Structure formats: C-alpha cells, structure tokens
Amino acid sequence: MSSLADRLSKLTDRLSPGRQPRRTSPDPLTLAAVGAGLAATGIGLALWRRSRKNKTAGDSIATDAPHWTLDKPSKRALFGKSVLINRPREELFAAWKVERFPDFMENVVAVEALGGGTARWTIKAPLGREVHLVNSITESVEDQSISWQSEPESEIANSGEVRFADAPAGRGTYVTLILAYDPPAGQIGRLGAKLLQREPEVQARRDLHRFKQLMETGEVTSNASPSARSSETATEPHI
Amino acid sequence: MRAVTWQGRHKISVETVPDPEIVNPRDIILKVTSTAICGSDLHLYDGYIPGMRAGDIVGHEFMGEVVETGAQSTLKKGQRVVIPFTISCGQCFFCEKQQYSACDNSNPSETRDASELLMGHAMGGAFGYAHLTGGYAGGQADYVRVPYSDVGPVIIPDDLPDDDVLFLSDILPTGWHAAVNADIEPGDTVAIWGCGPVGLFTIQSALLLGAGRVIAIDHFPARLALARGMGAEILDYTRVDVREALNEMTGGIGPDACIDCVGMESHGFTADNILDQVKAQFYSVTERPHALRQAILACRKGGRLSIPGVYGGFADKFPLGQLMEKGLTVKSGQTPVQKYTGELLKMIQDGKFDTTSLVSHHAPLEDAAEMYRHWHGEQNDYTKIILKPGLEKGAIQAKSEMENA
Ligand SMILES: [Zn+2]
Ligand SMILES: [Zn+2]
Which residues of B186-207 are buried (b: 16+ CB within 10 A; e: fewer)? Predict the structure, then answer.
C-alpha cells in the first residue's frame, strides 16, 4: 500500500465514530447543510469508508490503479479526483492558498486565517444557511502536497489532501484532491444534497475544474449569456 | 436586443431579450452582421437535442463587428471578425495540440457533467447548441458574448464581404477537415456522400488537396447541380446502384477515400446522433447508417474513410468485419475550427473557394421562424440561408442562380 494510502487510512480512522473525540448531533437538515458547505470547501470528493477496504488493507494489491479507485462497485462513489493542469507544479502549489479559494470555490463566502495554518471557513448552505468549518494544515510538503484536518469546533469533521505531481512529456501537473468526511445525515442527507446540486462530490469536482480553468486560462469559465427566460440574467452562469 | 430562440419542437421565435455583457476579461461583445442557419440547427428544431431549454438563443455560424472588449481581449472595437463555432481556450492540453474542438476548459463546470456521462469525457464548448456543449447563447441575435476572444475570432479585412467569409465559422473548415482526414494522395479518386453545405465544401477541399476525381452522391437535383458546378462527378442514388457505379468508375477497385457527409446535418455535435440512432431504431429508418455502411463497402482495400463528426451513438449493424478485413483507415471528429481559419482565409482571398453559390437565401433575422420552416421542409430549394439582423421583416432575397445551375 502506498504511503498516500496509509495516510488516507489514518484520515478515515480519525473519522470513525469510535475514535471521534467530540461529536455533535445536529438535526438532519443542518447536517445536509453542512454537507453542502463541505463541498464548497473544495477539498474534494466524498470518502466512504468501506468494510472491504479494511479487509484488503495490508494485502498486496496487484494493480497500478490509484487506491481511491479500488473496491468501488459503482463509479458514482468517488472520493478522489485528478485533473491534468497545463501549468508547472510549483506555480500550482503556490496558487493553492486560502486567499485564492473564493476565486474558484463556488460556495465559499470567506476564509479567515486564524494563524498557525488554521482557518475558519464560512460556506453557503442550502436554504440560505451558512456553515462554519475550522481546518488546520497538518502537513505541507513544498511543491508536492498539502494535508489538513478539521479542529473539534468545526461543524463537520473532515480531512483531506491535495497532491501535485509532474505529468509526463511536459503536459503540466496532475493535481489530485482527496477528501474524507463524516457523511452528513448519512445516505439520505447525501441524496437530498444531490437533488439540490449541492452534493459534496459534485461540488468538489466542479471546484477542482474551476481551479484548472483559472490556472490555465486566467479566468473561471462562464456560460453567462442572455436567454428568453425571465428568471435568468445575462451575467449569471446558468445550467 | 432581438434574438432567435428555441421554444420547443418545431417552435422557433424571435424574442426581445437582455443584451449580453462582458463577464470575463478575455470576452468581447459582437454586433452580429450575418448569421447562417446550419443543418445541425434542424436537430434542435426537431427537438432531438437533449439539454435544450425553452428560451435558449440558437445559432453557431456568425460574424460581425466588435463593439465591446474585456480587459484582456486583444481585439479592438470596430474590427470585423468571424467567430468559430467551437469555443476554445487556447491553453489547455488539447488546444495546445490544436485539437481545439476538444478544449477542456470551455465547457463550464456546471454543464460538463452530463456531457461527460454521455461521452466518457466532457465535450468542448460551442455556441447556441444546448447545455451539453456549455449552454452558451448563440449568434442568431443582434449581439453575442464571445469568450476567449484572443484565440478564436478571425479578423476580416474590410474588402471581403460577409458572404465570402461567414462560413469560416463552421462549414468551410468542417469540409476542409473532412478532406484533410481523408489523407488524399495526388490523383486519388474521392467519393463524397451528401451534397449539403459541408459536402459542397468537402468537394472543393478534396480537389484543392490533390484529388484527381471527386464523385459526389445525393438525390436533391439542385444540390447535385451545385456539386457538379464545383468540379465533382455526380451520382443520384435514387437512380443508380452506388457501389456498382463507383466500382465501374474505378476499374473495379473502388474509391481511394470515402467521406461521409450525409450526417453533415449534425456535424460537429455527437450527442444528437445518439438520439438519431435511437430514433432510427425505434421510430424510422434513416439514410445515415446506410450511407456509412455503403461507404465502407464501396471503399477500396487499404483506403481511407473520413467521417466528419457524425455517428456518435451505437450504430446498428456496423460493418466492423468489412472495415477490418479491407484494412481501412478511419478518421473522424468535430472540427478544430481555429486550426484552419488562418490558412482558409488566405485561400478565400486567393479565390480558391466558391463560398457564395451555395447560398440560396438572405433573410431578416425577424423572419427566422419562417426560414427554419423552409430549411426543414424544402432542402432542394433552400441550400443555405443567411440571416441579417436589422433588416425589416419580410425583406427576403432568394438567389435565382439555383434554378439555372
Ligand atoms: Zn454549423
Ligand atoms: Zn482549451
């Protein structure tokens, strides 16, 4: 198992209920909202703990597939995502910083640095709510990776990692985003969030693509344009 | 402003909508002077395209004058430009390889999911063609917002009239791309299925690229006459056995290259073809898979098959064994318009292309609904329609050359 996999496994352990130091138990609606907020942190795609994974941990895996793509009967249950970005690794690493997150993370209202690598996030949630996360950087390897872990006061427990690796033949950089979090309101909350287009997986994937757009083209792609629908403006993106 | 909008199946209306605005630094706003109706617009009209919403502004073949520029645009107000239908950033992996139609940034995050699900990877962005290709408003309007204006727009010298250059937006590069994909060698015999606007440009391109003979196949008399005027030998498939005729014209070996432009009505977009295939299986039999099958069986051993962007779906009874046993090379794909516009503009200036004889009608934008009806139902008489914003309703001009061709 790769060192990344090891770390991931630790990330998930931290989230397992038995070892959770402090858990609040808000109502399902809040939990769904929290899920939405989490998405907007842009940290990534949902990591679902799998009993199978535990069974295979430690076994030698006869495949070169990224570990986060293993043991998944369905393509929909992603918890990691890679994109090719046609820019140098150092440049992308330097750009992945708190101050720039609102530029490409759709639902982030504000990120406030608290010092020592800790930041307090304010995130838009469904029904006009806001969610607050408090995350701390646990490890940062210059030009390679950044890992983080939520603090106990965070409204949702989460941890994750973003990795930067050279792509071959001068193609730029593979940027990989991995996220572990406590699924808010379980699968039902996830379904609800999905219906609202606020599912963490969806949002994180979109934010990662916005990061790519911004870094490659200097702007976040927008289809904003007029239509004959009175509900839309010419300057807001529409789906 | 006024704009041609899709409201549902066989429902096109011209509506008053808000003006577009600059959103991103590289944008421009274009004042449209000419915009054509494309064969692929018929698929919107027929309601086959998933992801269309009532109120969408259509049109992907247009040109005009720059009236507003974003901070990062390299264009200047007052410049005349033709806009490629493909929206391409110029900076992603695909754009750097000049595979502009595969741009990985132009389809916004919000709309790329469905496209990715359908194709395996998200399609590039395009104007006026549903939300699978980005949901951008089209160019059949008084004004359009054009993203990445430093990459796509082709600056047009003042002495070239609109009709000479408008088709740089789509059908000329698409015809050129189709011929380039046929890897034509000097003296080759090239067979082309379909004499619509793309087929007609493919005929011209094949000859310019060194084909010794071009044999064009269709059944509309006016379109066959245009093909002959452009230098092709013609076959009316309702009157001959196409394969037998092609064999007899080539000493029994078949054409060196075969190009399927029958599906040109949906060139550039694959999603609609999936729907067409479904339709073909459940509702009616279309000519399109038939033409492709025929092209494969007609092509000489070791020959080339070029498919300008059609058949994205699951074709029924595809002659895969024949393709393999005959050792055909197949090339396909949506047109990377930006790759070709520079050289094609030069060739237009050198008088190498007949860009105007296929135009059958000029009409005011206000008459768009009527023009869509004609385009849909009268393909022999309406070979290409150009809409003009600003003209008074009813001021329709038909070219009489058609009848005399
Ligand atoms: Zn077109
Ligand atoms: Zn691109």
Answer: eebbbbbbbbbbbbbbbbbbbb
Calculate what percentage of chain A has a pLDDT beyond 70: 59
Kindly give the distance from the C-alpha atom of residue B111 to the centroid of ligand 1, in angstroms, as a whole number: 21
Put simply, the answer to whether B105 touches A221 (Cβ < 8 Å) is yes
Q: How far is the CA of A106 from the centre of ligand 2 (A)?
A: 21
| Partner residues linked to B144 by β-bridges | B30
* Predicted confidence (pLDDT) per residue in B346-378, tens digit: 999 999 999 999 999 999 999 999 999 999 999
Query: Which of A213, A223, A231 is the best mutation test for B, with the most CBs of B within 10 A?
Result: A223
Question: Interface pTM (ipTM) of the complex?
Answer: 0.89
Work out the mean pLDDT of chain B and round it to a whole number: 90
> Do A234 and B110 make contact, defined as CB atoms within 8 angstroms?
no
CB-side neighbour CA atoms (13 Å) of A230: 0
Sequence-separated contacts (24+) of B95-98 with Cβ below 8 Å: B95/B151, B95/B338, B96/A86, B98/B336, B98/B338, B98/B339
| CB burial readout A10-49, b (16+ within 10 A) else e | ebbebbeeeeeeeeeeeeebbbbbbbbbbbbbbbbbbbbb
Q: Do B137 and A225 touch (CB under 8 A)?
A: yes
User: What distance in Å separates the CA atoms of residue B224 and residue B217, rounded to the nearest whole number?
Assistant: 8
pTM for this entry: 0.83
Task: Residue B209: count other Cβ atoms within 10 Å of its Cβ.
Answer: 17
Q: Does A21 touch chain B (CB under 8 A)?
A: no
| Residue A169 touches partner B, C-beta closer than 8 Å | no
Interface of A with B in 22-61 (CB under 8 A): none
Token representation of residue B117:
């699900």
Distance between CA atoms of residues B242 and B236, nearest Å = 8
Contact (CB<8Å) B25/A219: yes
Secondary structure (H, E, C), A101-140:
HHHHCCCEEEEEEEECCEEEEEEECHHHCEEEEEEEEEEE
Going by their DSSP bridges, the two strands A158-166 and A145-150 should be labelled as antiparallel
Look-up: residue for tokens 């492709």? B292
Per-residue pLDDT of A7-52, as tens digits, reads 444 444 444 333 333 333 444 444 444 444 444 333 333 333 333 3
Q: Measured between CA atoms, how close is B151 to chain A, in angstroms? A: 11
In B, minimum Cα distance to A233 occurs at B18
Cβ count within 10 A of residue A122: 17
Question: Which helix (DSSP H) or strand (DSSP E) does residue B13 occupy?
Answer: strand B11-16
Alpha helices in B64-108 (DSSP H): 93-96
B308 near B198, Cβ under 8 Å?
Answer: yes
Which positions of chain B have pLDDT values less than 50? 264-273, 281-287, 312, 401-405
Q: B147–A221: do the CB atoms touch at under 8 Å?
A: yes
Place of tokens 């609109």: B162
3-state secondary structure of B206: helix
Alpha helices in B317-378 (DSSP H): 320-325, 337-349, 368-377
**Minimum-distance CB partner of B92 among A86, A222, A239:** A86
Nearest to B109 by CA among A57, A142, A206, A19: A206
